[in-house]
UniProtKB/TrEMBL annotation:
Annotated organism of origin: Mycolicibacterium flavescens
Ranges for domain Rhodanese: 18-105
Keyword annotations: Transferase
GO molecular function: transferase activity
Matching CDD domains: RHOD
Protein name, entry field: Sulfurtransferase
Family matches, as SMART domains: RHOD (SM00450)
Length: 113
Protein backbone atom coordinates (compact mmCIF):
# COMPACT_ATOMS: atom_id res chain seq x y z
CA UNK A 1 0.00 0.00 0.00
CA UNK A 2 1.21 3.51 -0.78
CA UNK A 3 2.41 5.03 2.49
CA UNK A 4 1.31 8.46 1.26
CA UNK A 5 -2.28 7.23 1.03
CA UNK A 6 -4.00 7.99 4.30
CA UNK A 7 -7.67 7.23 4.94
CA UNK A 8 -9.90 10.30 5.11
CA UNK A 9 -12.98 10.63 7.29
CA UNK A 10 -15.80 13.12 6.89
CA UNK A 11 -16.83 14.66 10.19
CA UNK A 12 -20.04 12.56 10.19
CA UNK A 13 -17.87 9.42 10.32
CA UNK A 14 -15.80 10.57 13.30
CA UNK A 15 -16.93 9.35 16.74
CA UNK A 16 -18.04 11.91 19.32
CA UNK A 17 -16.47 10.22 22.34
CA UNK A 18 -12.96 8.92 22.78
CA UNK A 19 -11.11 6.49 25.05
CA UNK A 20 -8.01 4.32 25.01
CA UNK A 21 -9.17 2.44 21.92
CA UNK A 22 -10.45 5.42 19.90
CA UNK A 23 -8.19 8.49 19.90
CA UNK A 24 -8.75 11.95 18.41
CA UNK A 25 -5.24 13.40 18.06
CA UNK A 26 -5.33 17.20 17.83
CA UNK A 27 -2.06 18.39 16.25
CA UNK A 28 -2.79 22.15 16.38
CA UNK A 29 -0.55 24.57 18.26
CA UNK A 30 -0.96 25.26 21.99
CA UNK A 31 -2.79 28.59 21.46
CA UNK A 32 -5.30 26.96 19.10
CA UNK A 33 -5.91 24.12 21.59
CA UNK A 34 -6.40 26.59 24.45
CA UNK A 35 -9.08 28.52 22.50
CA UNK A 36 -11.10 25.33 22.08
CA UNK A 37 -10.91 21.63 21.26
CA UNK A 38 -13.06 18.51 21.04
CA UNK A 39 -13.92 16.98 24.42
CA UNK A 40 -11.72 13.96 25.06
CA UNK A 41 -9.19 14.79 22.35
CA UNK A 42 -5.48 14.18 22.93
CA UNK A 43 -3.21 17.16 22.20
CA UNK A 44 0.23 16.73 20.66
CA UNK A 45 1.25 19.70 18.50
CA UNK A 46 2.49 18.73 15.02
CA UNK A 47 6.13 19.56 15.79
CA UNK A 48 6.13 17.40 18.92
CA UNK A 49 4.65 14.24 17.36
CA UNK A 50 7.99 12.52 16.50
CA UNK A 51 9.33 12.97 20.05
CA UNK A 52 6.05 11.87 21.66
CA UNK A 53 5.23 8.91 19.39
CA UNK A 54 5.32 6.48 22.33
CA UNK A 55 2.24 8.25 23.77
CA UNK A 56 0.16 6.84 20.91
CA UNK A 57 -1.12 3.26 21.02
CA UNK A 58 -0.52 1.67 17.59
CA UNK A 59 -3.57 -0.56 18.16
CA UNK A 60 -5.97 2.33 18.83
CA UNK A 61 -8.25 3.70 16.13
CA UNK A 62 -6.46 7.00 15.51
CA UNK A 63 -8.21 10.05 14.06
CA UNK A 64 -5.91 13.02 13.39
CA UNK A 65 -7.34 16.55 13.37
CA UNK A 66 -6.07 20.12 12.95
CA UNK A 67 -7.83 23.35 11.98
CA UNK A 68 -8.76 22.51 8.36
CA UNK A 69 -7.05 19.18 7.58
CA UNK A 70 -3.66 20.10 6.07
CA UNK A 71 -1.38 19.66 9.07
CA UNK A 72 -3.26 16.58 10.21
CA UNK A 73 -2.79 15.06 6.74
CA UNK A 74 0.99 15.55 7.01
CA UNK A 75 1.04 14.09 10.54
CA UNK A 76 -1.11 11.17 9.40
CA UNK A 77 1.32 10.45 6.54
CA UNK A 78 4.20 10.50 9.05
CA UNK A 79 2.30 8.17 11.41
CA UNK A 80 1.48 5.80 8.55
CA UNK A 81 5.19 5.60 7.73
CA UNK A 82 5.82 4.66 11.39
CA UNK A 83 3.41 1.74 11.20
CA UNK A 84 0.24 3.37 12.49
CA UNK A 85 -3.09 3.33 10.64
CA UNK A 86 -4.24 6.95 11.08
CA UNK A 87 -7.39 8.49 9.65
CA UNK A 88 -7.27 12.16 8.66
CA UNK A 89 -10.33 14.22 9.62
CA UNK A 90 -11.35 16.14 6.50
CA UNK A 91 -12.20 19.76 7.29
CA UNK A 92 -10.62 19.58 10.75
CA UNK A 93 -11.95 21.43 13.77
CA UNK A 94 -13.70 23.88 11.45
CA UNK A 95 -15.90 21.01 10.18
CA UNK A 96 -16.27 19.68 13.76
CA UNK A 97 -17.66 23.02 14.95
CA UNK A 98 -19.84 23.54 11.85
CA UNK A 99 -21.40 20.12 12.49
CA UNK A 100 -22.57 21.46 15.86
CA UNK A 101 -20.21 19.29 17.86
CA UNK A 102 -19.00 20.59 21.24
CA UNK A 103 -15.85 22.68 21.53
CA UNK A 104 -14.48 23.13 25.04
CA UNK A 105 -11.57 24.75 26.85
CA UNK A 106 -9.31 22.98 29.36
CA UNK A 107 -11.43 24.59 32.10
CA UNK A 108 -14.52 22.90 30.71
CA UNK A 109 -16.18 26.04 29.36
CA UNK A 110 -17.34 26.67 25.81
CA UNK A 111 -14.45 27.11 23.40
CA UNK A 112 -14.04 28.54 19.94
CA UNK A 113 -12.27 27.21 16.85
Amino acid sequence: MDQGAVRQADIADVPTSFDASVVLLDVREHDEWERGHAPGARHIPMGEVPARLTELDPDAQLFVICHLGGRSQRVAQYLAAQGYAPINVSGGMEAWAQAGRPVVTDGGGAGIV
